Each structure stands twice: as structure tokens, then as C-alpha cells.
Amino acid sequence: MPIFNRRKKGTAFWQEPPFRSADLQQLHEYAIGCVVREDGVGMMRSGWAIYRRAGLHSCQSSEFLRDGYLYWSQSPAFQPDVALAFLTDLFERLNACDPVPPPDVYAVPPALIEPMAAHYTMRCWAGVELVETADRLSRPDIGERFEPSVFLAIARTPSPFVPARARGWARTYARRRGHPDPWPAFGA
Q1: pTM
Q2: Burial of 162 (0-12, 13-18, 19+ CB in 10 A)
Q3: Angle, alpha carbons 15-65-52 (nearest 5°)
């Protein structure tokens, strides 16, 4: 075993911080450098470290995760099975809880809503990306396993936090399955 191998056996690359530091500012600065270099893996590792320490709303962690995934998915280093594992991990962690929104999300100061908005929008993104990636990779087993839970996660998300892509996916899924539109008041 190499002396300098920092990765713990069985740890996914995105769960390994890019360096040993709990300083959010250092992680953020490193991630910005990764954006400049178009280093998707570095962005994902930084974004995950920030997310696990301070939440998806902190220091652009959700953007680093999402954009880092995009850069990585278009790179020669992309590994489809690892992508499915990342999306599954992220979706399942975010799907494990539903932050309780106030009755009127627009009447609450942004600082109180941002953590909730980041949680829900990232969960919607991860779920839709997971089932669409599984479809592109011809992995119907993944789609069949996750489509119902992705649909339910999106449908129970407060409507102000559902991105357009997730709303469209959920409506299409509902029509194909004969379910009612989750947001009939918003029109088609």
C-alpha cells in the first residue's frame, strides 16, 4: 500500500475532502480554483465537504456539486457506474428528511429559507438526474427502482422549490402512470 494514499478503503471520491481542513473559506476558494480549471472532480469533492460541514446553502456547495458533476460527466474520466452511485448517494441523503416550510415562504427572511430551498432543489435535481442518467445508460433496473421515490420526493416538495425540469419530469411520470397532476393549480 502506498505511504501517501489518503483515501480510505471504500470511500467514494466525492466523500473525500480535497485536503484536510474544516475551514469553509479555504474549501470555497479551492472550489473556485477548480471552476477556473474546469476540474469537476475537485468541485464535487469541495462541494460535498462544504455540504457535509455547513449545508447545501453554504459557500455555493450545491452549485459546486451540480456544476462539478456536469464538468466531470463530460470529461474522459467520467465513469457511468460511479455517476449513478454519486447521484444515488446524494438523492437518498436528501430524501431522508423533509424540512418543514413556513406557511408563506415568501414572508420569511431569505436567510431562513435558503437552507430549505437548497435542500429541496438539490434533491429534485439529484433525483431527476439519477433516473435520466440511468435511462441514458440503458439501466432500466435503476430507473424502475428509483422513479417512484423520485416522483414522490418531487411531489411532496413545496411548489416554490420545485425546479422547472423536475416539475416537467414529475408531470410526465404522472401522466404515464395515470396519476393526477401534482400541481394542478399551476397549469400544464
Answers
A1: 0.89
A2: buried
A3: 45
